[in-house]
Amino acid sequence: MNQEWIDPVIFSVGPLQVRWYGAMYVLGFIVGGFILKYLYDKKFWPLGKEAIDKYITWLIVGMFLGARIFYVFIYNWDYYSVNLADALAVWKGGLSFHGAVFGMCVSTYLFARKNKVHFFQLADSLAVAGGPGLFFGRMGNFINGELYGRVTDSWAGIIFPGGGPFPRHPSQLYEGVLEGIVLFLILFWLHRRQKIYGIVSAVFLLGYGVFRFIVEFFREPDSQLGYYFGYFTMGQFLCLAMIVLSYAIYRLAKKANVPNPLVS
After folding, report:
1. Contacts of 48 (CB under 8 A, 6+ apart)
2. Which residues contact 85 (CB under 8 A, 6 or more apart)?
3. Among the listed ranges 20-29, 130-139, 151-160, 207-216, which one has the minimum average pLDDT value?
4. So where are the chain's domains?
5. What are the φ and ψ backbone dihedral angles of 197, each rounded to 5 degrees?
6. Among the listed residues 227, 200, 62, the one whose alpha carbon sits nearest the alpha carbon of residue 131
7. Comparing C-alpha atoms, which of 141, 157, 149, 140 is closest to residue 2?
8. Quick one: pLDDT band at residue 229, thresholds 50, 70, 90?
């Protein structure tokens, strides 16, 4: 498929630009906030409704710090080790989803301690509410024409502005559907059926790790990293770590045994 690309800028006012990528993140947090309020109404969210907006603010801070730190130190340290000033230049791009998850988990842990609730109660709520954010974020990547897939001759191939003359897999769309829609539906179904908190978080880590690991076979690896052992990517190794961690979370959830009020 070859076509004139979507303009990543929605509109401009002088030097100020409103871009689809940023709008998608805002939309993800708005929809996530509505889902958290739904979980509050159903008694799954353990705090008052007024705590939701504060929690989202903590998540935003944790997400961007974690995403940037992972990208700088794990994905591109060879560059930033000799260009330290650029490590703070987030407007030039460079965020890691695995780092974003780590940062939001740290924020969730600190927010749970501050409000004297169990970490799994907030983490499970975040796992359910985060699905739309994953979907919208990948749509932002697609509109930006970034994080595209490997060259393909299949019907799904798209010629991206920065991807050369050959069609490539729209791996952003694959991820958006699997991680943002399919995983959300699984977790939304699950949160009303598990007797204890923590299982939903474990399934999120497992599901994301498996889906992302699969999509990485279609996604172009980061140019500065390439392939490991001639076949695997850094993203896949991080996904394997998430899959292993999911089992540890499952065991901790069983040990903590925090009851889910939705299941009698």
Report:
1. 40
2. none
3. 20-29
4. 9-256
5. -75, 150
6. 200
7. 157
8. confident
